[in-house]
């Protein structure tokens, strides 16, 4: 959807919810609005604009600029329309000679201390101050320029994405309020009084302040005081396209603002249901990777990985790959090849990959990155509730009374939802954090968790069982909900298990490491505080008992009746932008789209009729099975779409051995990543800005992705997959991704009503969307569970094999950081590296002191499978015995030490618990040294290909 650039309408003050209606007249126009609406908003709804500078509908009314004055019959003076609520029968005038004179006088004062450089100002034509001066009819400024002023104030250009020019600041406080109300960081303040008032980032520059570069202040600024550097360098955009962010599972809506085919700015879309006009540093600013010089824009092939790449046409590349795959199957059998689909690609693209595998390869050897992150969510929630997805919309948190955050770090990994959660906590909601590490939410500005339960890595199930034990034995459970909504026999069996004193907080203390008194109090709070919501992340799923823990979370929600309405629920925080969608589209080896098992004859018949092929009824290989079989010589060909398994998957040396053993590895990506170093065919991918399609976020929200620029390599990913399929003799005939979605809707009951036309009409849709829910389903399991009755699963705590011992006395756990994303392929190619240029090892000062480790030292981390080296960061965010790192930089080799220990049900790797030893060292590990040599060789082979081209 392409249209000329036009800012979204701003109604001046936020909307209010009220069932009561108030009638009034404004400039002779009679209208009715909800009680509590401001006069300014009522005027805007009537099509009447009142001049303003400090007011915006994304912030609470402030009433400081004095430009929005109005006259109201029966009232003295000139009240500010932004802070004045409507009253029944009120008569308002917004335009009178007296008001015009007052407004010009106020505006004259503002302009008297403002540079008159509009023609050379970067926001010329996109400046509220400039527009408002024209609206009020200001034609001269009589005073101020020769006296005291702020015109020589020095710019702050420390932030890589925006510039702060205090000379243009009118001290309206919109930036300060946006930082407080929208983001919740409280990084900005007003220093000084009167004429000396100024916006300050805590007395330092923006880069060194607590600012998280979300851009809320930039969006709120009505002048050129806070301006994106891209606007300063490239000018005002000419048109915009509504699309969806390709970073985390929040799925923010954005207006990609463009000049020609060059993206100038990404502005958060106010109508985006997932973000409602907010953003984070990644989605808001880190889009430059899409045109980074490292992009590979031509297909490449080679016979062996120690040969130079050869740039070829698309036809030659896909035919080369198809010949290799056919030869492999002819020699090693039908099951000797497979594919991994990408959670960064669209639903339509991953759907085509699983279709290619099943209809073209003739097997079910397809998997996705959800295997190594949220596959336990699918298994656990399917077992207990009947659907492999979260239960709520993000907005549901606004009605939450107590939230449990378990194994998740929303302010770092899902920052826009993290800001929404902080808003609710500041309003009085209670908070329980269950995490080995002290995340920001434990003690943030104006927020403090009621309880932080620092569980030992690997003991999540024990904590959940202990909480359930307290709730059940103290009769805090919702008997009516359980009797009316849940299976009786499984509940009675679970009840006998969980009521056993062996499941008490005291009995499990050694396992959990949590004070039983605090655990009991936290359990009581969750059970009695009202609407209780549980938000969990990879710190729950990436364990040997990940599936068990997810079932334990569902048990806890059912036990307390916290399902089926707003403000409650079980909410998995999905990591990548389309990891939910990749699962929905049938990317698991045992399921067709819509989570239907391949062994089900009726489901197979539906797809066989549509695809005109016979499908294999046996599940295929999971990702770990593929790699094990590759090392054993049984699996020989892999099509890897947009996943960097050589960096992201555990036990790196095993993964590299598997990739190196393949006869043909086809990698489809935008950069030559770690996996591509082992590839024989490279198909250049397309960024989200270069394609049409849909993503599905963590709240089951289907949102449109719209093409902003022509694919640099000539094809979007769905077109590349079609080309490969046709080369293999697998017929695929689609002219646009809308046609692929139409096929998905025909074959998948939960998507039955989904179409691009409906998405364009509604903006987004939460599945299920079908005849029973034609406009989607914000809240799941309202009157009954998808499976009928809820199932209480017995969740026996089984200690992980990855336990601390004399040889490996520390437990390593991993996570993400705000400025980087996943394996860093995108964010490392943006100025985001300003904040995080390398992964570091957080270690408690007791553990560091015992080992003679100082802050900044090189530390060798050794596990039973490998060794790597990281810089030390002495920290009290981890407890003694626990160390922590991120995995955004390939040189760090974090997954060199993670093991092949995995979830019992899904093979999701146990990234969060690795027994290690840490020692002070002076040089990189042997793996890092070998990797550096290998990298240099691969770069040289790429250079040779470029020279040949």
TrEMBL record:
<dbReference type="InterPro" id="IPR041924">
    <property type="entry name" value="Formate_Dh-H_N"/>
</dbReference>
<keyword id="KW-0004">4Fe-4S</keyword>
<dbReference type="InterPro" id="IPR006963">
    <property type="entry name" value="Mopterin_OxRdtase_4Fe-4S_dom"/>
</dbReference>
<feature type="domain" description="4Fe-4S ferredoxin-type">
    <location>
        <begin position="202"/>
        <end position="231"/>
    </location>
</feature>
<dbReference type="GO" id="GO:0051537">
    <property type="term" value="F:2 iron, 2 sulfur cluster binding"/>
</dbReference>
<keyword id="KW-0001">2Fe-2S</keyword>
<dbReference type="InterPro" id="IPR017900">
    <property type="entry name" value="4Fe4S_Fe_S_CS"/>
</dbReference>
<feature type="domain" description="4Fe-4S Mo/W bis-MGD-type">
    <location>
        <begin position="238"/>
        <end position="294"/>
    </location>
</feature>
<keyword id="KW-0408">Iron</keyword>
<keyword id="KW-0560">Oxidoreductase</keyword>
<dbReference type="Pfam" id="PF00384">
    <property type="entry name" value="Molybdopterin"/>
</dbReference>
<protein>
    <submittedName>
        <fullName>Formate dehydrogenase subunit alpha</fullName>
    </submittedName>
</protein>
<dbReference type="InterPro" id="IPR019574">
    <property type="entry name" value="NADH_UbQ_OxRdtase_Gsu_4Fe4S-bd"/>
</dbReference>
<dbReference type="InterPro" id="IPR006478">
    <property type="entry name" value="Formate_DH_asu"/>
</dbReference>
<dbReference type="Pfam" id="PF10588">
    <property type="entry name" value="NADH-G_4Fe-4S_3"/>
</dbReference>
<dbReference type="GO" id="GO:0043546">
    <property type="term" value="F:molybdopterin cofactor binding"/>
</dbReference>
<dbReference type="Pfam" id="PF13510">
    <property type="entry name" value="Fer2_4"/>
</dbReference>
<feature type="domain" description="4Fe-4S ferredoxin-type">
    <location>
        <begin position="160"/>
        <end position="191"/>
    </location>
</feature>
<dbReference type="InterPro" id="IPR027467">
    <property type="entry name" value="MopterinOxRdtase_cofactor_BS"/>
</dbReference>
<dbReference type="Pfam" id="PF12838">
    <property type="entry name" value="Fer4_7"/>
</dbReference>
<dbReference type="InterPro" id="IPR006657">
    <property type="entry name" value="MoPterin_dinucl-bd_dom"/>
</dbReference>
<dbReference type="InterPro" id="IPR036010">
    <property type="entry name" value="2Fe-2S_ferredoxin-like_sf"/>
</dbReference>
<dbReference type="GO" id="GO:0046872">
    <property type="term" value="F:metal ion binding"/>
</dbReference>
<keyword id="KW-0479">Metal-binding</keyword>
<dbReference type="GO" id="GO:0022904">
    <property type="term" value="P:respiratory electron transport chain"/>
</dbReference>
<dbReference type="GO" id="GO:1990204">
    <property type="term" value="C:oxidoreductase complex"/>
</dbReference>
<dbReference type="Pfam" id="PF04879">
    <property type="entry name" value="Molybdop_Fe4S4"/>
</dbReference>
<feature type="domain" description="2Fe-2S ferredoxin-type">
    <location>
        <begin position="20"/>
        <end position="98"/>
    </location>
</feature>
<feature type="domain" description="4Fe-4S His(Cys)3-ligated-type">
    <location>
        <begin position="98"/>
        <end position="137"/>
    </location>
</feature>
<dbReference type="GO" id="GO:0003954">
    <property type="term" value="F:NADH dehydrogenase activity"/>
</dbReference>
<dbReference type="GO" id="GO:0008863">
    <property type="term" value="F:formate dehydrogenase (NAD+) activity"/>
</dbReference>
<dbReference type="Pfam" id="PF01568">
    <property type="entry name" value="Molydop_binding"/>
</dbReference>
<dbReference type="InterPro" id="IPR001041">
    <property type="entry name" value="2Fe-2S_ferredoxin-type"/>
</dbReference>
<keyword id="KW-0677">Repeat</keyword>
<keyword id="KW-0500">Molybdenum</keyword>
<dbReference type="InterPro" id="IPR006656">
    <property type="entry name" value="Mopterin_OxRdtase"/>
</dbReference>
<dbReference type="InterPro" id="IPR017896">
    <property type="entry name" value="4Fe4S_Fe-S-bd"/>
</dbReference>
<dbReference type="InterPro" id="IPR009010">
    <property type="entry name" value="Asp_de-COase-like_dom_sf"/>
</dbReference>
<keyword id="KW-0411">Iron-sulfur</keyword>
<dbReference type="InterPro" id="IPR006655">
    <property type="entry name" value="Mopterin_OxRdtase_prok_CS"/>
</dbReference>
<comment type="similarity">
    <text>Belongs to the complex I 75 kDa subunit family.</text>
</comment>
<dbReference type="InterPro" id="IPR050123">
    <property type="entry name" value="Prok_molybdopt-oxidoreductase"/>
</dbReference>
